């Protein structure tokens, strides 16, 4: 479903080749300064243009259509719309018969039938994450002093990013990567177990982002190899600071005041410039497929700001929920 | 919060040392055969008693108090209660001053104050997962022919489980592990992007289970090292079966008819028989702490059935949601 | 569905002739004194025994099974269970063929099939409102100084209640009534338009109570006959107090600090001691039906405390939501 | 909060004097024909222009920005935007000190502070119901053969509408009215007790509509005066048709296949052309207030189509929920 959250609530909409994409943000406290200008920095970080991303530059201009008055939030829903430009382009109808490997073409047609908007990925397009980034900016404002910082730490299994990208470009291929996200200055007490643990809320949002394949908090998959005596984080001061941070800043689903840390695995972009095999379901036989156009060789380059936004959104909602019962 | 789901909805309650734990399951279709007897097999798999689990045997007898009539579900809410036995035991009040490393003692007290039930972990106890296992049985019935199977594939980083367990027991320590879960015979089309992708729903539930540190679907963290040409799964027949299954049975957040696969990292049990350091917050200094009693050296041994249940619950809800719009 | 609320959330369950009925209350702040004893006064007001109610006395003993510790709420879900007694009694299976006029027998069988628990109304029984009354007590505690008071103002169209009841008893018939509910000392600002206006939240709960047929706030249906110049409530002091109170304490879906007033129409009990006509659906013809047993001649006598509870529940949730965004 | 529904879900936004108002509709099945043209008939019924409504004509042109493809719904969220025109007009800032009687000015300022958009009612404006009407059109399509028909049955307590309107216009005053809504051809079985009875869902939406003061189903407030033997509706044929319809087509919160009937009380428009008294909160004294501009003498004239929409929305969601569990 296309909504998320209990107090700070999102409702997302749009298609890559339709009139636009956007998001409605409800439950935002009144009085927070918010203009389109505030959104530009994070939106800029999501933009293409850098080496390894698609040279197709999209102008992602947000328009805040409601929920602010004289530059501040009013407490009413905030809708942010990104109108699409120049989308009438090419014919995608061949995707109906020959779905692209790694994409949602095949399942979308099964689930929604012939009415699925298959052009440019439709509602499944990564373009829809523009709204997430915008909502993330609002969420960060709600969180106040909390700082959230995500960055790419590994690309194609390597840490020398440039070489990895050049290799992929040369081969008309794509590569995956790992994004690490850290949040500091979080108060103790955000998180609503049993079901709405911090990890549950963040992972729910992270796996809504196309191309994510895994998430781990703190020690993550390494924890499976450790002993309890190594893994337990000993308290070292009266604020609850711990010697190690295998917990990744969370105990029992609740922030413990230490740094929140998680890592996300991003798969290589499904659209590649190499010829692939796919089933032509109309003809009932496997055919070669060459996806034309310009793609992101490494979509992971554009994802850190989206992951920051997801973390901020989850934490902002948990902050407001926590506040409700104080 | 303690509820989850849109149509197939859970409401969980209880404490380890209170009167009992349990779950209310709402939104279940009418006419499904269901008795306490049906729950025993999965509950048995969660039980302690095996080498490496606590020798403290709990009798986990479920009582279905509502929602069935003449052995079948009625469509009304099903409440399943597990009464606790012999819980008056020892004094836990020292945890207020000296929270156990790795546990929720510290954060719970910050969030809920002196009123937090600290005895035996209270509402944070792993005992609360009994309800999840029971709900999992109902969910599996809703899913019909779908088979879900989770098992421990790695323990303390090794695959020779017995040796790993004996070593931990000898050292009065604990170890983590990895659980892999597979679901077969799933129809194409379950999953409700943007926010309620299959991965989002499953991971939300998985991270509600105490001790989980990471989750990955299909290729998971390996995907970050791969190229698109390797990662993309080529269709090989007219049912949508693919040559490889890096997608783990999901594209665009929707089941694609191939095997659903995910893996979960479980941390070593926080309660260990070794002396640890912890802050005595009343005295303001670090002290040694020895947690008495009998613990699970490897809680991961008892978790596979809980993970199966989580997967079944997420998929059952997605099945009913999908059905709503057909 | 059997859950309600955003922060202060209820999950209701049970059947009149099953093992019991009850409610789970989630989202309650920690630290509120709560014992079974606290529930007895309001439960007593719902009890039968008075002239005009069924002489069948039910012992409605609540058991709080979770969510409190040393007599105070912990912030974890509170489950309150009322076990049923002496319910094996009579055979209700004739209701499958011959549904009782005014009851849910007919629709329940259509919706849930043969699996519907038809004994004593099953999940449709008025007995399920015990949980609402219990949750109402908790809600009133959350509301602090707010006082809520509902009473029967009219019975069978009359204000001399005794005569109306005696007449109904003499005729083996039943009668309806009107309950008026007032809440005082409410702060300005509860209510979350657009959808969760105070009236929306209260009426949602009121129409869940069996036998309710109408609700009006402030001037209510009279407003339809009035002119704006008569209806508008003029402010008379700096606290926002108004000269008249046609608004019933609510403007734009939000409490305005004046007395909250609403009235609820209760239909006459459907079970009467007179012979009625009903369709025997098995035989395909109309037959006479005489419902045996002892019934409430005027169920409206027992409903005021349930209506108070509904108002308190809606307002408590709105209070916590409002607090989340302050 | 500004969202509603479980499967068929609405998210509403906008302000009367901002950039626009609108609605996002999620959970709509794929394949339903839908264009802007389809919305025009119902939007036309909400329009002003008739005698007794404001002579200020608004062009309410909807733009469907997402969720349709080649004229049919895709299963993705549908957003419908109504851009505002010519709204820069006058200065409303006096409302901050001198709130209008009967309006939300006073409570909005208390709840949201100085950041509330007070221009033209802001998010509290009746203009926001445009989205409800649009969503109602979609809901009616989901309901298929069901016909829903609302009309004004009483105005200012009279049935000779023209005279009532002329009198109000002459006096520069406003008048209320009663709208009756009937739905036919509903299947048996829609409605989800305990909490989501048909009446609960409809009344929740009805009381979100500005100016509604009461609602009654079937016999409604008359039921309070009746005896059970009069009120019970006897079944007369094998489809469940009843002799009378005091139930208003609903038993136990579930549609029973008979005509659904409810009535809604509408208060007189709060904005009138007569001088009123109001508190100037800045000066701390009562002053005379004359609201300039052109108003609806009888807003009830424009409300029937909004009430139809509310009924359709509630029923469409209940239909989809019912379908989920079949």
Question: What share of the residues of chain A lie within helices?
Answer: 25-40%
Choose one word for the global shape of chain A.
globular
User: Which pair of chains has the greatest number of interface residues, and how are they split between the two chains?
Assistant: C-D, 108 and 108 residues
Unreliably modeled segments of chain A:
none
String of helices and strands of chain A? EEEHEEEEHHHEHEHEHEEEEEH
Average pLDDT across residues of chain A?
94
Give the CA-CA distance, first to last residue of chain A. 30 Å
Domain count of chain A: the total is 1
Name the assembly state: homotetramer
The side-by-side strand order for the widest beta sheet of chain A comes to: 1-2-3-7-4
CATH architecture label name of chain A: 4-Layer Sandwich
The beta-strand count of chain A equals: 15
Broad CATH class of chain A: Alpha Beta
Please outline the major beta sheet of chain A.
5 strands, antiparallel
CATH superfamily of chain A: Chorismate synthase AroC
Number of helices of chain A: 8
Q: What is the strand content of chain A? A: 15-25%
Could you provide a short overview of the structure?
By secondary structure, chain A is an alpha+beta fold. Chain A has helices at 36-46, 94-97, 105-112, 129-143, 161-170, 198-206, 228-231, 304-324; strands at residues 3-4, 9-14, 20-26, 62-66, 68-69, 72-73, 78-83, 147-155, 177-184, 212-217, 250-251, 254-255, 260-266, 276-280, 285-289.
